[in-house]
Specification:
The protein has about 350 residues and is mainly beta. It has a domain of about 110 residues: Immunoglobulin-like. Helices cover about 10% and strands about 30% of the residues. The strands form five sheets. A five-stranded mixed β-sheet has the order 6-5-14-9-10. Strand 5 and strand 6 form a beta hairpin. The N terminus is likely disordered.
Length: about 350
């Protein structure tokens, strides 16, 4: 083990507290369950279906519920392809590309994700809105807070992350029971987990225990200190009691599906990559082999769907030497992947266009 990680025989990269799939291992759009990235605060809890139930409670429901997995399976089932990406994916690029040392928050474990802290699956389950409606959610509801059965820095009462009512009641926000047609694997939240499309992975709470529906704003570690942007670009006084602005949506990003750095042979090379954003489809990807002086359109290989990534390809005539390839994504709302961004102490949501080092021998 070196620098906090090792690679197993299947090519997966084991981090302290996580499992990363090198992006070059991804084929097509759906990530197999066995390859899907894992990010845990603690070892995977093994929960038996017998005896498990999900409670919905709080001062903003009139009909508190307790639902078994069988109860949830008896409700209308929805299947939705959704990309999930860790808020810290690309974190290592802050150091490798921008020269910003990481670990500015030594009391927290900051996984050194490279390009593979993400994956897309077909999630099947029930709409969170249907469950909240059964519980009699009231007009006074402010925060919906799923709480997991896993334990972390938050203490002995479970991992939790509040979200606003509008996001919880969106018809695409799910309580998932299956992943890629299989019963939800233990590493990915069995017996049930939330799937919050378009938002960073910390909102998709695994191993659900209960859902609290409250009239007040809930302040927890994850929305005050952990998943907020902290650094010189943000005055913490403006966000108190949080220490910076809350991270919610995925930024617009693109990555080449290549090792870092990538060894290539001379001559025409057909290269693949993946572009993704939050809730808007990707409509265009461009690429550059001269550090952004000129750009060409890449070919989009897959449909441009909401919550999904797009696979793209380009053909580059590789010449011997050291090179850097760049890609840039554009979405249906007219937004373009950013060319620069400020560093934040947690190394979150690195999204800027970056040079991918390539060595042609």
């Amino acid at each position: 083990m070196a620098d906090g990680f090792y690679k197993d025989v299947s090519g997966l990269v084991h981090l302290v507290g996580g499992l990363e799939m090198p992006l070059e291992k991804q084929q097509g759009l759906i990530t197999p369950n066995a390859d899907f990235f894992i990010c845990h605060d603690a070892p995977t809890p093994i929960i038996a279906e017998e005896g498990w139930s999900l409670s919905v409670e709080g001062d903003a429901v009139t009909n508190p519920l307790r639902l078994t997995r069988a109860d949830l399976e008896a409700m209308e089932q929805v299947t939705l392809p959704v990309l999930i990406e860790c808020a810290g994916n690309h974190r290592q690029l802050f150091e490798d590309v921008m020269g910003e040392p990481l670990n500015r928050r030594p009391h927290l474990v900051e996984l050194r994700w490279h390009l593979g802290g993400l994956g897309m699956a077909e999630w099947q389950g029930v709409r969170l809105a249907d469950v909240l409606t059964m519980a009699g959610i009231t007009d006074e509801a402010y925060h919906i807070m799923p709480v997991g059965l896993d334990r972390g820095r938050e203490g002995e009462d479970g991992i939790r992350m509040p979200m606003p009512v509008a996001k919880a009641m969106h018809p695409d926000t799910l309580i998932a029971l299956r992943m890629n047609g299989e019963t939800l694997p233990p590493d990915h939240g069995f017996p049930a987990r939330t799937i919050v499309p378009g938002w960073v992975g910390t909102y998709s709470i695994k191993w659900l225990d209960r859902i609290e529906v409250t009239r007040e704003h809930r302040w927890v570690e994850r929305n005050t200190e952990r998943y907020v942007l902290m650094g010189e670009a943000w005055d913490s006084a403006d966000y108190a009691p949080a220490k910076g602005p809350l991270i919610t949506k995925h930024p617009l990003r693109s990555s080449l599906a290549l090792p870092w750095p990538a060894p290539l042979a001379p001559g025409p090379q057909r290269l693949r990559g993946y572009a993704r954003g939050a809730e808007e489809p990707i409509v265009r990807v461009t690429w550059s082999a001269d550090r952004g002086q000129t750009w060409q359109d890449a070919e989009l290989l897959s449909p441009s769907d909401r919550y999904a990534w797009v696979e793209f390809a380009l053909t580059w005539d590789a010449t011997p030497g050291e090179h850097a390839l760049m890609t840039r994504a554009y979405d249906a709302a007219g937004e373009a992947q950013v060319l620069d961004q400020p560093f934040n102490n947690g190394g979150y949501v690195y999204a800027m266009v970056h040079p991918h080092p390539v060595a042609v021998a």
